[in-house]
C-alpha cells in the first residue's frame, strides 16, 4: 500500500512546478508567435489564412492552459500556507510549541 504525504513544503514545491510550467508555456508561445510572424511574411493565400486561424485557436487554448496552471499554482501556494497554519495550531492545541 502506498501513502501520500502532504506537507506545506510538498504543496509549495507542486505550486512552483506548475508555476514554472505556466512560464514555460509563455516562453514557447512567444517563440511560436515569432516563427509564425516570420513565416507569414513569406506566405500568402488560402493556406496562410487557414494557418493563421489554426494558430490563433492554438494560442487561445494554450493561454487557457497557462491561466489554469497559474490559478492552480496560486491555490496550492495558498493551501500550503493554510495547511501550515492549521498544523501549527494543532500542535499548540496538543501542547506543542
UniProtKB/TrEMBL annotation:
Q: Which domain of life is it from?
A: Bacteria
Q: Specify whether Coiled coil is a keyword of the entry.
A: yes
SUPFAM superfamilies reported in the protein's UniProt record: EsxAB dimer-like (SSF140453)
Question: Where in this chain does the entry annotate a coiled-coil region?
Answer: 22-82
Identify the keywords attached in UniProt to this record, alphabetized: Coiled coil
Q: Which InterPro entries does the protein's record reference?
A: ESAT-6-like_sf (IPR036689), T7SS_ESAT-6-like (IPR010310)
Q: Which family does it belong to?
A: Belongs to the WXG100 family.
- Which named protein is this? ESAT-6-like protein
Amino acid at each position: 500500500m502506498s501513502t501520500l504525504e502532504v506537507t506545506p513544503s510538498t504543496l509549495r514545491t507542486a505550486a512552483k512546478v506548475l508555476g514554472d510550467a505556466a512560464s514555460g508555456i509563455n516562453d514557447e508561445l512567444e517563440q511560436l508567435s515569432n516563427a509564425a510572424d516570420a513565416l507569414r511574411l513569406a506566405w500568402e493565400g488560402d493556406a496562410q489564412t487557414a494557418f493563421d486561424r489554426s494558430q490563433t485557436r492554438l494560442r487561445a487554448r494554450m493561454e487557457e492552459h497557462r491561466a489554469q496552471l497559474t490559478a492552480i499554482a496560486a491555490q496550492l501556494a495558498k493551501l500550503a500556507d493554510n495547511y501550515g497554519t492549521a498544523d501549527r495550531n494543532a500542535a499548540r492545541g496538543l501542547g506543542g510549541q
